[in-house]
Amino acid sequence: MSTTILDIIGNTPLVETRSLIKNPKVKLLLKLEGQNPGGSVKDRAAYNMIKSALDRGDIDKNSKLIEATSGNTGIALAMIAGIFGLDIELVMPENSTIERVQTMRAYGAKVTLTSAESGIEGARDFAEEKMKKGAYFMINQFSNNDNWQAHYKTTGPEIWRDTNQQVTHFVSSMGTTGTIMGTSTFLKEKNKKIQIVGVQPSDDAKIPGIRKWPEAYLPKIFNPDKVDRILEVNEDEAKKMTRYLAEKEGIFAGMSSGGATAAAVKLCEELEEGVVVSIICDRGDRYLSSDLFDEK
């Protein structure tokens, strides 16, 4: 039976760290979402958001899509939109790495860059204004239930299956919060004792893919009741762990993955025993033009 590119979204590997955890009764498993065809966990949500909108008739082949993004969601949306023959415009801050911009354009998307100073919030405002003025359909990943439901359908069940139902803790960076919302919903249905741990940047830390949103921009899909605990990481911790993962574990990822892993290690050090799963949300090759992997 033939396989299409859409068929290989999900079912990503779950690998145990080799050197980070000293307690033999505690396992830290990393879910390698960079293995998705678009290179990140966002392939899951992008596919579910676009496919569900098409199935409901919210959009068709003549629709023009628009979305604000900081990177990975935009790449995934560009890939999926191209597969379905849809026009899409992606709006992102001008200080985004050139790899991300070029990848979106490679998939056929129009990319509009907004001021770096206004950040992703400014990109969101720009996209909303353009949607109001023109015939655009905004994906709106921050308010779209198809975002978190992608992880309820796929990420959660995969973790439950691949840990042989032994997972005790789930750790995820928080951006749109779709990954943690959907995975939490599924895992809590299976076992209410599973602890869901969100990762946010400490005050003033800038970590691509992890956000502490101002109240006005808080994702509408976020439900704080689905997160048992929030751990904070700073830029230095996130960068050091990202480099460590590449150098010592052979896991080439972005800074948000380093932040999540740093938080997961802190958590593991508190435990006497357990099976901790943390999300490695993308690949490191889209950050090579930044200073992330510079020698220090």
From TrEMBL:
Q: Is Nucleus among the key words of this record?
A: no
Tell me the Gene3D superfamilies matching this sequence: 3.40.50.1100
Q: Which reaction does it catalyse?
A: O-acetyl-L-serine + hydrogen sulfide = L-cysteine + acetate
Q: What EC number(s) would the UniProt record show?
A: 2.5.1.47
Q: Enumerate the Gene Ontology biological process terms.
A: cysteine biosynthetic process from serine
Can you give the residue ranges of the Tryptophan synthase beta chain-like PALP domain? 6-282
Cofactor(s) needed, names only, are:
pyridoxal 5'-phosphate
Pathway assignment = Amino-acid biosynthesis; L-cysteine biosynthesis; L-cysteine from L-serine: step 2/2
Q: Which Pfam families match?
A: PALP
User: What does the UniProt keyword field contain?
Assistant: Amino-acid biosynthesis, Cysteine biosynthesis, Pyridoxal phosphate, Transferase
- For the ligand (pyridoxal 5'-phosphate), the binding residues are 72, 175-179, 256
Protein name, per record: Cysteine synthase
Organism, by scientific name, is Gillisia limnaea (strain DSM 15749 / LMG 21470 / R-8282)
